């Protein structure tokens, strides 16, 4: 029987640009030319969900990568220059951040180094939960706010590596916090970059222009020794800064909810007042109509018609309750979300400041205590501004309640109904509250209130929620404030660093943006210092490629990189078709760039000595096996999927003396050759012009893609012995059952969805949990 078992096949409506297997589940992510992100499962290649492109994220996906735990999928978007983090279970965008250049390649790795210091940190990482309350979920988005906090993932350090043009390389701890930036190099990252699991070096396949102006493929190894030497400190710092980044995202969502509640108040009142203003024949304003009713107890026929026919007594009660609910929502968001988030930010920043004062450990990483102190001050100012907004809301609610109680009594009198005695009493203070409400909420001065309802505004509160640089229209009245007067008169306290500035003329949004800018500046300094510490250790020129190959999708092109974690080695596999299409080249370097590698640097593999066959694609299945797609002459086999054991090749002892002044293809005749036997680990790919392959040796799966980028086949590997694989087959079927499926009916629905652009196929949480439990068992 064939060595590999085919479990699915599909003709896709749009060409695939990149594909990657999940490290933990039998799921594969694909991105196509329309900008759509697709998630398919192994069984029958059925679709789980699709994430269509949009203007917010972009429409040109250039690379994808899985977080090592398989719960988050990262993809880069070329037209908007963003990196997006997507939740795998719900197909929801959790986080995105901009980058300077379009990303051409990305890789998400996990650090496996162990030490007593790291172990103690892993065990004590959640100490903040002992001092800080759990952040409350956000209204209307409970699940999303929980997922935002789950972006942190596991404590063990993992790093998302991004590469692009102009030598652009960035490293993001936990996929969120930038810990290193590499710029200014005269090369372009071609298709893949690999950070070793011991953090000692970064391998990059680059492209430079040769003397004859053709693209020249080179191997570059960068020394990242600072990350390796300071691994415990890097992990602690990165974890704290990732907490901070997550909290900033939480505060942004909280402010968005506050703005929505504010807009609800405007809409509720405007709906009631629009028809009245449109139908009234007088030239008086809405404010004047209500003031006349307040002062003289008489109203115009238009106002009386509005109150009695359109608003009604019952409707006034509902309107009052609705607006009070919106005010209360803003108030609760400030108290439970903004203030709680600010306290958590202050806690984590204070811990980072403590790290920065331990100069022996953290100064080499660029932690600047002065910059962190500025960030703490900015968070304190944001907290003060949130507290100021609370006081404004409290005053506005007093005016609001007095206005609606007065209007309710006035309408009862118009109806000649009985007025309860407790409502009939109105003090001078109550009248002042009503007058304040009318002057604040019904003003039609366009110069003062440019963002308000058409006939009603809540500018006293709304001015704090404007995302603008202008000063507040109605800043709080601080006359008579004894504390402020005391500060102004005290020469010692006036400029004291212990006191947070309050910015009384600025909005909450403005102070929030200022806080984000200061924290961002604080976060960037370590990235700059670590980036400058990265040095070029190895530069090897491999071969040139003709310009005609530029049309090939870069993410599928060789060379392919691999990191052997057991032996701490980097492997690069590539072909040089211009030299010999039947030869496969293997380059190996230690993850320590200064470690001398015994035996040969280059192993030259001869695939089939009896006839010419070319290698179309090659990917590392595991440390000792290479999965290849071969183009064998039609009279023999055609396209073939094969597994190549590398044991004998890696043990080759023949030395190759590399002349660094020449490209490898210019000295290929001197490279020692070694035959390689395919054996029975292969399968003919009939009726398919196969070209590319993606594999996962942990899950023992492979996906083959055709030359036209539309035809895919998925295989289970290592299944010759059915008895040994019985348990695995059961797991695979259980995995299929764990996702929503209705048999043939779903398959037909899926095909129809693909023809029309696709839609999200949701999975229930229980199903996903059972699926994950089965797969990880």
From TrEMBL:
Keyword Nucleus: yes
Cell cycle listed as a keyword: yes
Domain Anaphase-promoting complex subunit 4 C-terminal half WD40 residues, every copy: 561-716
Stretch list, region Disordered: 719-777
Any single GO BP term: anaphase-promoting complex-dependent catabolic process
Pathway recorded for this protein: Protein modification; protein ubiquitination
GO cellular component, one term: nuclear periphery
Keyword terms of this UniProt record: Cell cycle, Cell division, Isopeptide bond, Mitosis, Nucleus, Phosphoprotein, Ubl conjugation, Ubl conjugation pathway
Anaphase-promoting complex subunit 4-like WD40 domain boundaries: 19-110
Compositionally biased region (Acidic residues): 719-728, 743-754, 768-777
Coiled coil: none
Location(s) in or outside the cell: Nucleus
Domain (Anaphase-promoting complex subunit 4 long) ranges: 219-416
Residue ranges with Basic and acidic residues bias: 755-767
Domain of life: Eukaryota
Function, as annotated: Component of the anaphase promoting complex/cyclosome (APC/C), a cell cycle-regulated E3 ubiquitin ligase that controls progression through mitosis and the G1 phase of the cell cycle. The APC/C complex acts by mediating ubiquitination and subsequent degradation of target proteins: it mainly mediates the formation of 'Lys-11'-linked polyubiquitin chains and, to a lower extent, the formation of 'Lys-48'- and 'Lys-63'-linked polyubiquitin chains. The APC/C complex catalyzes assembly of branched 'Lys-11'-/'Lys-48'-linked branched ubiquitin chains on target proteins.
Protein family per UniProt: Belongs to the APC4 family.
Designated name of the protein: Anaphase-promoting complex subunit 4
Naturally occurring in which organism (per UniProt): Myripristis murdjan (pinecone soldierfish)
């Amino acid at each position: 029987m064939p060595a590999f078992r085919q479990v699915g096949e599909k003709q896709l409506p749009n060409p695939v640009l990149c594909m990657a297997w999940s490290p933990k589940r039998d799921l594969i992510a694909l991105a196509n030319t329309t900008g759509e992100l697709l998630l398919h499962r192994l069984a029958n290649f059925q679709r789980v969900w699709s994430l269509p492109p949009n203007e917010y994220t972009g429409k040109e996906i250039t690379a994808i990568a899985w977080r090592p735990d398989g719960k988050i999928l990262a993809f880069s978007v070329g037209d908007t220059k963003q990196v997006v983090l997507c939740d795998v279970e719900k197909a929801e965008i959790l986080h995105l951040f901009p980058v300077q250049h379009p990303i051409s390649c990305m890789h998400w790795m996990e650090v496996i180094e162990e030490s007593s210091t790291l172990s103690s940190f892993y065990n004590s990482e959640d100490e903040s939960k002992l001092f800080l309350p759990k952040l409350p979920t956000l209204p209307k988005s409970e699940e999303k706010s929980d997922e935002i906090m789950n972006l942190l993932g596991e404590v063990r350090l993992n790093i998302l590596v991004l590469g692009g043009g102009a030598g652009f390389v960035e490293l993001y701890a936990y996929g969120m916090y930038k810990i290193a930036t590499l710029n200014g190099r005269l090369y372009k990252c071609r298709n893949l970059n690999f950070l070793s699991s011991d953090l000692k070096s970064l391998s990059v396949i680059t492209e430079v222009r040769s003397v004859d102006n053709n693209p020249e493929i080179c191997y570059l190894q960068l020394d990242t020794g600072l990350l390796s030497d300071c691994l415990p400190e890097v992990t602690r710092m990165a974890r704290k800064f990732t907490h901070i980044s997550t909290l900033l995202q939480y505060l942004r969502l909280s402010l968005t909810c506050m703005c929505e509640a504010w807009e609800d108040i405007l809409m509720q009142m405007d709906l009631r007042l629009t028809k009245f203003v449109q139908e009234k024949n007088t030239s008086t304003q809405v404010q004047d109509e209500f003031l006349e009713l307040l002062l003289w107890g008489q109203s115009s026929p238009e106002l009386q018609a509005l109150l009695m026919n359109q608003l009604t007594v019952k409707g006034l009660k509902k309107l009052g309750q609705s607006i009070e609910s919106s005010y209360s929502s803003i108030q609760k968001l400030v108290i439970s979300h903004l203030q709680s988030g600010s306290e958590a930010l202050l806690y984590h920043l204070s811990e980072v400041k403590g790290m920065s004062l331990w100069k022996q450990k953290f100064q080499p990483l660029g932690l600047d205590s002065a910059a962190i102190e500025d960030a703490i001050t900015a968070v304190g100012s944001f907290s003060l501004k949130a507290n100021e907004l609370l006081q404004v809301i409290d005053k506005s609610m007093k005016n609001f309640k007095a206005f609606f109680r007065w209007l309710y009594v006035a309408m009862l009198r118009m109806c000649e109904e009985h007025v309860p005695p407790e409502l009939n009493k109105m003090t001078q203070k109550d009248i002042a509250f009503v007058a304040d409400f009318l002057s604040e909420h019904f003003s039609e001065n366009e110069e003062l209130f440019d963002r308000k309802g058409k006939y009603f505004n809540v500018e006293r509160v709304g001015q704090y929620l404007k995302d603008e640089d202008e000063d507040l229209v109605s800043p709080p009245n601080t006359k008579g404030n004894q504390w402020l007067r005391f500060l102004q008169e005290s020469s010692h306290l006036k400029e004291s660093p212990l006191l947070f500035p309050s910015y009384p003329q600025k909005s909450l949004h403005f102070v929030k943006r200022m806080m984000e800018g200061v924290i961002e500046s604080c976060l960037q300094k370590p990235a700059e210092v670590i980036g400058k510490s990265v040095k070029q250790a190895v530069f090897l020129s491999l071969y040139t490629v003709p310009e005609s190959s530029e049309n090939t999708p870069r993410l599928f092109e060789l060379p392919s990189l691999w990191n052997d974690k057991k032996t701490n080695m980097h492997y690069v596999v590539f072909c040089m078709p211009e030299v010999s299409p039947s030869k496969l080249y293997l380059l190996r370097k230690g993850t320590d760039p200064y470690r001398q590698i015994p035996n040969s640097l280059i192993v030259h593999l001869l695939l089939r000595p009896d006839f010419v066959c070319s290698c179309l694609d090659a990917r590392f299945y595991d440390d000792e096996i290479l999965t290849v797609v071969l183009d064998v002459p039609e009279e023999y086999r055609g396209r073939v999927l094969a597994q190549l054991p590398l044991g004998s090749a890696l043990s080759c002892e023949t030395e190759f003396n590399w002349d660094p002044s020449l490209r490898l293809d210019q000295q290929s005749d001197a490279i020692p050759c070694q035959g390689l036997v395919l054996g029975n680990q292969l399968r003919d790919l009939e009726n398919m012009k196969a070209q590319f392959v993606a594999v996962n040796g942990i899950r023992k799966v492979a996906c083959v893609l055709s030359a036209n980028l539309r035809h895919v086949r998925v295989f289970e590997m290592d299944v010759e012995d059915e008895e040994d694989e019985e348990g695995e087959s059961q797991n695979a079927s259980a995995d299929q059952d764990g996702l929503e499926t209705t048999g043939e009916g779903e398959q037909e629905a899926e095909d129809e969805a693909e023809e029309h652009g696709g839609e999200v196929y949701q999975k229930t949480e229980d199903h996903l949990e059972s699926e994950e439990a089965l797969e990880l068992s």
